[in-house]
Amino acid sequence: MREKVIITAAVTGGIHTPTMSEYLPITPAQIAEDAVRAYEAGAAVCHIHARDPQTGRPSSDVEIMREIIANIKSRCDMVVCITTGGGLGMSVTERLLPVELYEPELASLNAGSINFALFPAVSRFSNWKHEWEPQYLSATEDLIFPNTFKSMREYFAKFKQSDTKPELEIYDSGMINNVAFMIEAGHVKKPVYLQFVMGVLGGITPSCENLLFLVDYAKKLIGEFEFSVCVAGKAQFPLCTQSLLLGGNVRVGLEDNLYLEKGRHAKSSAEQTAKIARIAAELGIEPATPGEARGMLGLKGIDKVKF
What is the pLDDT of residue 235? Predict the structure, then answer.
């Protein structure tokens, strides 16, 4: 275990829809507020998606993104990690544009294609707040979330140009091999930052055995890396705790899990941040400050972003 851990708060995402939880932040002000509250609870990093403030639908509008991240930066010094996953169905160009415009310290970079399936959620709800929600979710039964070697190469080039550190999203073990290939080909340099994403239908299932396998496999193929764990659904806290025991970092937030405990919705990503910080404290681990996180990940600094 380590003495300091980077806690990331993923505050809204592009997976859950407004019907699923009344606490899901939708507007730019709500998203920024939840990020800042998570910072106050111990998060050094926030992972940011944008949504249409009227409907809550995931949005590629770069002005909405700018409003969110500028608000956060004006209120605290946490590391802002911008998504390049965006919302399902967005083009590669749409997904990459915020990084090109705003040159953040950190941004997600998905390390391979996946059947990103959300459609089973449709059967769990009958009264929807917005017409787009069941259509959006149902469409994922026939959807591939594309991240080809060509698009990854182009992403790495843009990240290098803006001096943005890629947070490499690993949804399955083959994506570790993809990253190893990209390192060998010279498109990205070590030490890389891996985010093991578990629990998405189409990717690896969340279990202690699978997390041990992912970490071990990455050590064999890559060698030197920093890692974090995020989990979709109820296994979020058990596997994030395992990450702490393995010397890894953690991501929580309403993007990944709408609950604080069984049967109880989380009212904010800050609540989840406070919970994982308490768990870490019981293990003798302290939340890293944003400054410490920058040092651990080798980030360029908040003074070099363009927002």
Answer: 98
Report how far residue 33's alpha carbon sits from residue 8's, in angstroms, rounded to the nearest whole number: 15
Kindly report the pTM of this predicted structure. Answer: 0.97
Given a contact cutoff of 8 angstroms between Cβ atoms, the answer to whether 46 and 276 are in contact is no
Structural domain includes residue 306: no
- List the alpha helices (DSSP H) in 188-235: 208-221
Q: Distance between CA 108 and CA 24 in Å, rounded?
A: 21
The angle at the Cα of 196, spanning 40 to 101, to the nearest 5 degrees, equals: 65
pLDDT class for 10, splitting at 50, 70, 90? Answer: very high
Tokens of 108: 């997600």
Span 138-143, mean pLDDT?
A: 97
Q: Give Cα separations from 188 to 76, 108, 148, 218, 295 (angstroms).
A: 30, 14, 16, 15, 19
Residue 164 covered by a domain: yes
Per-residue pLDDT at 151: 95
- Total tally of structural domains belonging to the chain: 1
Q: Which residue has the tokens 């730019």?
A: 28
Give the residue numbers spanning the domain of 73.
Answer: 4-298
Q: Is residue 304 part of a domain?
A: no
Q: Which of 226, 95, 110, 256 is nearest to 175 (CA)?
A: 110
Residue 88 has pLDDT above 80, yes or no: no
Is the four-CA dihedral 58, 62, 63, 65 of positive or negative sign? Answer: positive
Pair 250, 7: CB distance under 8 Å? yes
Distance CA 270, CA 280 (A): 15
With respect to residue 303, please indicate whether it lies within any of the assigned structural domains: no
Determine if the peptide bond prior to 191 is cis (ω within 30°): yes
Q: How far apart are CA 234 and CA 49, in angstroms?
A: 22
Residue 69 maps to which CATH number?
3.20.20.70
Residue 3 CB-density burial (10 A; 0-12 exposed, 13-18 middle, 19+ buried): exposed
